[in-house]
Design brief:
Layout: E1 2-3, E2 22-25, E3 28-31, E4 37-42, E5 45-49, H1 53-56, H2 58-66, E6 73-77, H3 83-86, H4 90-98, E7 105-109, H5 110-121, H6 123-134, E8 158-160, E9 163-168, E10 171-178, E11 185-190, E12 195-199, H7 219-231, E13 236-239, E14 245-246, H8 248-274, H9 279-285, E15 287-288, H10 291-294, H11 305-316, H12 332-343, H13 345-357, H14 361-374, H15 377-396, H16 401-420
Parallel strand pairs: 5-6, 6-7, 7-8, 12-13
Antiparallel strand pairs: 1-15, 2-3, 3-4, 4-5, 9-10, 10-11, 11-12, 13-14
Helix pairs in contact: 6-16, 7-8, 8-11, 12-14, 13-14, 13-15, 14-15, 15-16
Length: about 425
């Protein structure tokens, strides 16, 4: 095992969430996209699991389905309420109407309704936070990027609590609830086809409990549920993202290693909490399973161990981090101004540049933020520009694309603010 932050990373983000379409059997296939879609076609109609493939385009998804089957869409199942899985159902309903087919029914866990309602309530925050998470350097301002819940979103007709089952065209569809990436998760088991469609349980790369802008996630339940998937002994698995899994050996290896990773982090965090360690110390002491560095489906380019540790700790603790000055803190700008007064802005910025040159970019970033926030008006332009430069350097060495984009969006804001200052 290795510790958090130990050694250098070599991961490169090359669209790891994208896969290719796969036909497992003539009546069972996966359509790859911004979120994968699973389809089971029967003589009585098709069951569609998730509907945001082809980068959010419901129309493109219909075209892809029709290349494989002309069966009416009988049922749509949402794996969870994220935009890349459940926000583009309306075109499928319109297609059914245009063909004279009955309206497809929509099934989801009961918590998905609450999720959609919360998204409406927090539309402004979601636009702003989503922009920081997904924008790149030079893109439009963060608050213009992520769309709120739009007109193509359709609430489910049928909700369930723990599990439900239905028959269609001689096949059995077993629907199960799970907690993991969300609290409204659904996975599907079709025993006659030995096929599991698992939504957010499988993301193609490292699981992502603790995404910086998201509400609480559920690492240990995630581990429990993906073990239950493996326990069904599927031969074909459609994950929410990434390539399909085929064959007993691959399915077992992927599912059980994800479970081991989550259990290891969870159990270490809990043990260290019980020994009286605060989060900063826990981050230092947790040993990450070596599988994270060895297996493509655990590469920390989406989720990462540091995020997972924080999420588990957040779940079981309050927000106090053990540092008394953080309990009722002064404004960060006031603290920064006092730090600047100690040695002067020029000395502080020179130290930032020296640390950056030495490769101590994260440490340089801490000091660069003091300079940007604490500089007097006359020096603020230069301090902001330096902060942007260090943020760009920090992004350059960051393998996790969520963290990378947060650094880049902050660099963009700092640079744009520096350009507005006249000296």
């Amino acid at each position: 095992m290795s510790r958090i932050g130990e050694g250098k990373t070599s991961y490169v983000l090359r669209d790891p969430l994208w896969a290719e379409d796969v036909e497992y059997k003539p009546d069972v296939f996966m359509i790859a996209g911004g979120g994968n879609t699973g389809v089971v076609a029967t003589k009585e109609g098709a069951v569609v699991f998730d509907i945001s493939a082809r980068i959010y385009s419901g129309v493109a998804l219909i075209d892809a389905i029709r290349q494989k089957t002309q069966a009416p869409i009988h049922t749509i199942i949402y794996s969870h309420g994220h935009g890349d899985h459940a926000w583009r159902a309306l075109p499928l309903l319109e297609e059914a109407a245009s063909r004279g087919y009955p309206r497809p029914r929509l099934i989801a866990h009961e918590n998905l309704v609450k999720r959609f309602d919360r998204y409406k309530m927090l539309a402004g925050w979601r636009q702003y936070a989503g922009g920081m998470q997904f924008l790149r350097r030079g893109d439009v301002p963060p608050d213009k990027n992520v769309l709120p819940l739009g007109p193509e979103v359709v609430y489910p007709d049928i909700t369930y609590s723990d599990a439900m089952q239905f028959k269609l065209g001689g096949l059995t569809f077993e629907v199960y609830h799970y907690k993991g990436e969300t609290d409204d998760g659904t996975w599907l088991w079709v025993p006659e086809r030995k096929t599991a469609m698992i939504g957010g349980l499988g993301v193609g790369i490292c699981p992502n409990p603790g995404s910086p802008f998201k509400v609480q996630r559920y690492a240990i339940e995630w581990a429990d549920c993906i073990e239950r998937v493996a326990g069904k002994n599927p031969d074909f698995v459609v994950p929410g993202h990434g390539r399909a899994l085929r064959g007993h050996k691959e399915v077992q290896e992927v599912c059980l290693s994800i479970s081991r990773y989550l259990r290891s982090i969870h159990n270490q965090v809990v043990a260290l909490m019980n020994e009286g360690y605060w989060l900063e110390d826990i981050m230092e002491r947790v040993k990450v399973p070596e599988e994270v560095n060895e297996k493509w489906w655990l590469k920390p380019v989406y989720g990462c161990p540091a995020f997972t540790i924080r999420d588990i700790h957040r779940r079981y603790s309050g927000w106090y981090d053990g540092t008394p000055s953080h309990l009722l803190p002064s404004r960060s700008a006031d603290i920064a101004a006092e730090v600047v007064k100690l040695g002067g802005i020029a000395k502080l910025m020179n130290r930032v540049r020296k640390l950056k040159k030495e490769g101590k970019v994260q440490l340089a970033l801490h000091l660069a933020e003091f300079a940007a926030k604490g500089a007097a008006p006359a020096e603020r332009k230069e301090a902001l520009a330096l902060n942007a430069e260090v943020l760009d350097s920090r992004a350059d060495i960051e393998p996790n694309f969520i963290a990378k984009n947060i650094f880049l969006s902050a660099a963009e804001r700092a640079e744009q603010e520096s350009k507005t200052i006249r000296v």
